[in-house]
Design brief:
Blueprint lengths: L1 E4 L7 H11 L2 E4 L17 E4 L7 H9 L4 E4 L9 H4 L4 E3 L6 H16 L2 H9 L17 E5 L3 H12 L3 E5 L5 H5 L4 E2 L2 H7 L2 E4 L13 H6 L4 E5 L8 H9 L3 E6 L21 H8 L3 E3 L8 H21 L11
Parallel strand pairs: 1-2, 1-3, 3-4, 4-5, 6-7, 6-9, 7-8, 9-10, 10-11, 11-12
Length: 332
Amino acid sequence: MKIAFFDTKKYDMPAFDEYAEISGVTIKYFETRLNQDTVELAQGFDAVCVFVNDTVNAAVIDRLAALGVRAIALRCAGFNNVDVKHAEGKIAVLRVPAYSPYAVAEHTMALLLSSIRRIHKAYIRSRDFNFSLAGLTGFDLHGKTVGVIGTGRIGKVFARICEGFGMHVLAYDKYPDRALADSGAVRYVSLDEIFAESEIISLHCPLTEDTYHIIDEKALAKCRTGVVLLNTSRGALVDAEALLSAIKARRVGAACLDVYEEEGDLFFEDNSGHILEDDILARLISMPNVIVTSHQAFLTAEALENIAETTIGNLVSLFDTGKCENEVHHTL
């Protein structure tokens, strides 16, 4: 089996090389992203392996199918960048449903703690031997109310972490986890209750038509003044322009973002020598109460191992048996 691997980063290769060798798979790594301009690179390959910012639209899918490519292997959980409906019956779409929920959940808590305890500001000060405590006052997490939107694998782990801090955990999910609710770790409520009661809101849901801009101007208007917003899931869950306006109006106390709606041409790359043309992102980064990381919540050694093992395993299963338990269908 030959795999064309798009949007390659150096940290991808060691784990994938290990599992490819074990499985007798050949991988060709391409630094470029998959899109309509680069799809011809897939000629002669049995499958393509893509990531969150590759463009797998109808035109790309049709061309892949015409080239004889049998599978699109996502090395991530989300698949909103793939036209799954168009792919149905033409080419198999496989994903990694759970690589390390702990990696993302722990990064979310790291962002929250950094923000409320001003760790990022203290670090910069101490580098200049400035040990003043002025402006570094934070607040305890113990006893605070956190609203977790989405209680899948990652949201569930984050809720447990918050429970460990002694927080009151509210949750919203279209399909509530009854075992989680019965454990007493969370209390399921409506979205409006999440907005009205939570001092901290964390997003852990997939990007769908229902969740697109789930945090918009109307939602932010319902939130408590000073709310802290966390997003380590998908950028388009948050209307970035509405968030910026709410921060400027002092309605949002802080925002911690590992993802951004228009991150495609920016994240995962070194843009330090370029002028940032995205005015909204530039304003967000300039705000003293905003922390932005570059879609790195997944990036742990354990997660990279799990991603490689599952991705290669998905392809081997599909090609050997014609079936894969992690195949995505448009009915999901």
